[in-house]
Amino acid sequence: MKKLFYWGLLLTLTSCFPTKTAPKIKTYKLQKAKRLDSSLPKDVAFIFQDKKDEGTFYQFLQSKYSLDEEQMNDAIPFVVDNRTYFFNFYERDRTSEAFLLGAMLAVAVAGGDPSGADYTVSGSQKWYIALLVFDEEEKDALDEEHPHRKRIIAYLDLLRREYYGLYSPIEQEFRTGN
């Protein structure tokens, strides 16, 4: 029983406990934008992980919608089912961090001041794109109550896939014969 206790104590002292974790998003996620970053609005956002270099999504949108620098600061218009919607996009990073309990206890046992040092270690940094969509009445178009929510999500998913090169409008046009 003593061996089990000592093994448990050793494991605890050498462990690190996560204090912040970057979300794992396989395709996309719908959630309040504020949960990704506190500086974002409370509206629902279409969020996906950006695995490309910072600024690449900005350049992609600028090229796709033929926008100049000034227009990129405004909401970007798009049409779904003959209705105009607008979206704003935000690039945010999240870093996973862990607290090193063993290091703090080792300093304390050695007679040092454990409160003066930083016992966190940063892990992987991930970038995310958050798209906030609203209609012409400036209502949150990704809200569960919005009547065209599913069609807008489908459009945003196509946009995400096109950004990653998983979907090509030219290829789609060729397949449908238009």
Automatic annotation (TrEMBL):
PROSITE patterns for this protein: PROKAR_LIPOPROTEIN
Highest taxon of source: Bacteria
Protein name, as recorded: Lipoprotein
